[in-house]
Amino acid sequence: MIKLATALRRLFLGLVALFIAAPLLVVIGVSFNESRRMSFPPTVISLKWYRAFFTDPDWTDSLKLSLSISALAALVSVTVALPIAYAVWRYRSRAATAMASVGSSLFLLPGVVTALMFSAFWGVVGHVGRAENVVLSHGAVLLGIPIALLSVGFQAIDRNLIEAARTMGAGETDAFRMVIRPAMTPYILCALIYVFVLSLNEYLIAYMVAGFSVQTLPIRVFGSMRSGYEPTLCVGAVIFIVLGLASFWLLAAIGDLPRLMGRHKPLEA
Amino acid sequence: MTTQRRDSLALSVLLSAPAVFLLTLSVVPVLLLLQLSVAHHAEGGLWSPGFELSQYAQLLNPEFLKVAAFSFGLAIVTALITVTIAFPAAYFITRMRRRTQVAWLVGLLSTLSLSEVLVVFAFQVLLSGGGGLVKALVTLGVMAQPQSLYPNVAAVLVCLVYLVLPYIILFLYPALSRLDDDLPAAAATMGASPPRIFVSVTAPLVRGSLFSAFLLVIIFTVGSYLTPLVLGRPQHWTIGILINNAAMGTGNLPLAAAQAVALVLIMAVLFGLARGLGRARDASE
Amino acid sequence: MFGLEIRNVSKAYGPLLAVDDVSLSIPQGQFVCFLGPSGCGKTTLLRIIAGLEPAGAGAIVLNGKDITTQGANARQFGMVFQSLALFPHLSVCDNVAFSLRLRGVDQKTRRARVDELLSLVRLPGMASRSISQLSGGQRQRVAIARALAQEPPVFLLDEPFSALDAKLREEMQAELRELQKRLKITTILVTHDQREAMSMADDIAVMGEGRIQQYGVPLSLYREPANRFVANFLGLSNLLPVEILCRDRVRLGEAVIAVAPMAEPHARGVATLSIRPEDVLLTLDAPDATSLPGLILAVRDMGSSVEVRLDCHGHQVLCVLQPRDWAGAAAGSTVKVGFPAQQCRVLAA
Hints:
The complex is a heterotrimer of chains A (269), B (285) and C (349).
Chain A: H1 2-31, H2 48-55, H3 57-91, H4 94-105, H5 111-125, H6 131-141, H7 144-156, H8 159-167, H9 172-201, H10 204-210, H11 217-226, H12 232-254, H13 257-260
Chain B: H1 3-37, E1 40-42, E2 46-48, H2 54-58, H3 62-94, H4 98-113, H5 116-127, H6 132-140, H7 153-178, H8 182-189, H9 194-222, H10 226-231, H11 239-249, H12 253-284
Antiparallel strand pairs in B: 1-2
Helix pairs in contact in B: 1-12, 3-7, 3-9, 4-7, 5-7, 7-9, 8-9, 11-12
Chain C: E1 3-13, E2 16-27, E3 31-35, H1 42-50, E4 57-62, E5 65-66, H2 72-75, E6 78-80, H3 92-96, H4 98-102, H5 107-120, H6 136-148, E7 154-158, H7 166-183, E8 186-191, H8 194-200, E9 203-208, E10 211-216, H9 218-223, H10 228-233, E11 238-246, E12 249-252, E13 255-258, E14 269-275, E15 289-301, E16 306-312, E17 315-321, E18 334-340, E19 345-348
Parallel strand pairs in C: 3-8, 3-9, 6-7, 7-8
Antiparallel strand pairs in C: 1-2, 1-4, 4-5, 9-10, 11-12, 11-14, 12-13, 14-19, 15-16, 15-18, 16-17
């Protein structure tokens, strides 16, 4: 009875894992395919399309552009979220709590709605088709993520730690520098990585806000998909997969991933 | 200086810059969208501020209503399938050893962050005549000859489930990790069978989270754009595609805005109804 | 005055008076326990003394200087928190040296001081450990060493031992008491554990409902509780409703009981008779004791003592006696119960 349950559980988890991995494996496989045809499994293994990708300035420019847009969007988003989350925790401020819910609300709207919103917004502002539009729009839409993660981080700090520091002569800034900042570093890094990866992969907002002139990697991948298949786009896809995996492995190495994802009880090794 | 004065000074220093950011980049765009939906549409992608309901009147045609109904139907079916898979998966993951758990979390986070563009493309490859799945099916004799598995509704559905599954597993993760293992154990000592325990102990404890997960899938999928566009046929198009076409194709921003507002309003009404039903049921129990 | 003075301190949270006009003066070098049930205001009072909570009214005076408006970081009273509040990201050494670093003490002096403190709390050679590697008792000692590092004028401890198991708790209590005597540092310890307070304090302040109910030497509080609250909280007491007849006579139901002469003239009327369970006698030949017939309801033999639950005139009376004084009688039998006059105290109803 117990054995059967275990076997069923393993089968179920195996199928879920296969479902999650299958499309990725296919793309990775095709990217190593010698042939121009989109077929899987690859018949002849080759790095031809990787060479093509990295020697085509169109693709490498898109990659560089995407990386810088995402890095800046992550920086913007976390910079805005940090004081809000700190004020909610430290001062139990109502204004900050209200700001946290306003900031998180855009993330809960369908992507096509926020995309339209920002496309209209930048049109009215008269600042169309610029990369910084994408940075700020992503920063605003993804704000819910750093707010949530940083709040978890602040809540994990024992308030007694601050009071203990004060009884030992620490002022407000000393306490922040010596107690709060070290405790928050993993959460801040986590928020940065999370927003970075989501921004890197976002298509619709980037397209509707600046798609005509700013070719981020997802926009170029989609364009290349629509205008006829080209194996280099598989390489673009593989780069995304590798970047995502690497970022989150890094995160798991820096911080306690189960805790960051909201686990309460500590987990033994 | 009193503590209160000092605190309010610190707060204003902390919050003024974020307040400006939120005002310009969250509040103003939302208000703009609302204004746009009642603005006057002129030819050539232009619009002028005003107040008219002609765009909303346009939404009442059967064509839009059919697309809206299809979008929500698609979202609800996706939500049912996703939550059914995500709940046991998340439960099992929270009960794993740390190392395996971290590996699952990394995998889920990486897929969750993958661009819809890439996922759609990957499914296109996987489901195409030359893709692995078709070859496997032919070899197994399930399929007579290689034949593309898209475009159709099933392909759209599978891809949508794929897109939201990691979100929902990670969403359920905290609630399920908090679940006290002693409770099912206590029920077992009182003679409850595993299915009985699940129905009468585990499920009620996480009902709220499951419900929220269900709503979250609907939020994520009801406005889907790329997936139905690439993997579906025109009759499987969703509001997301209509909004995009109105905005980018015909340049009728007011119509797109009205459609977007209508989408959010329908969502809000549905969620309100669902919450009301849930509360009524709780009250009757 | 040399020492710590608390003058008419009050603190309200909304309509709730957490601390209600408390005054107390603690001479330099005393060990005082604030003892009381949870919610009695003892932790709030401690936090006001530390400067973590502003006093609503009143003043805190240290060695004659009013420090009411100073924040915790200016007072620098060393404090051990209930959760210990050790910094998880710092090593033992960095935790202990935290206050020294804030004062800009150089690394070499810091290190020497840390070693000195760690050997004082009997943790030599543990400086480079991380907090997560320590046991409960070791963490306790680090917290104490850290609070003492700044040589605080007053040392505050908020239920520091509540998380330890019984045996370790008693060890730590003895050690802390010994350390305090050696350093001659003014110390306030908050606890709800009367054994802890009795065994450690020079003076105990029993707190209830935001007020100090009684302040004094442990044994005098135990022997002569000022009111029902103290009688009941500090050890167990039989509290019986009586009527005052005269200066040394009360009536319990039909029976008249001789009591210790009351100091101030009590108004006639209803009062409470308090007697410790160990003072109740179950022998017949007790001189100077009122005897009442009692029905044995239950007997619990604990090995080192025997607890007998009795019914006297419809009131439950608990009697605790040594096994050698216990003649042995079954529940349901009737015995004579003696109330020695000197141990019978009359309190306000």
